[in-house]
Amino acid sequence: MILGHLNRNPDPQLQRQIAETGVFLGFDGPSRANHATDWRLFDGLEALVEAGHGGQLLLGGDTTTAAARDQPGASFLLTTLAPRLTRQLGGDVVTAMLVANPARAFATSWR
Q: How many angstroms separate the CA atoms of 30 and 104, rounded?
C-alpha cells in the first residue's frame, strides 16, 4: 500500500506512526516551489530514515511540467531536490527513494 501526499501534513510523529504500519509513504508534492511544506520536507525525511523507514519512502511530483500550474515540474526532483537530499542523507538513500523503493512498491507478482 502507498499513502501519498504525506508532505501536505508535515507532522513527524504522525508520519512515523504511519511508517510503523509498514506501508510506503509517498512525498509527491515537492515540485511546488516555495510551498509552505517544502522547507520541512528535508528534516522529515531525515527523521524517517533515522528511524529505519528509508526503505518505505517514495518521492514524486504532482506537477509534471514547468508550464503546469506555473510550478517547476518533475525536473525539480532531479535538478534541485535530489542533490540537496544527497548532501543531507547520502546518495544511497536518495537512490532508494527514487529507484529501488518505487521498484518494490510497484512490483507485481503474476501467477
A: 22
pLDDT in tens, 16-55: 999 999 999 998 766 555 555 667 788 889 999 999 999 9
In 36-81, which ranges are continuous DSSP H helix?
A: 38-50, 75-76
Cα separation, 67 vs 74, whole angstroms: 11
Distance between CA atoms of residues 98 and 59, nearest Å = 6
Environment class of 55 (CB within 10 Å of its CB; exposed 0-12, middle 13-18, buried 19+): middle
Q: What is the pTM of this model?
A: 0.82
* Segment holding 19, helix H or strand E: helix 12-19
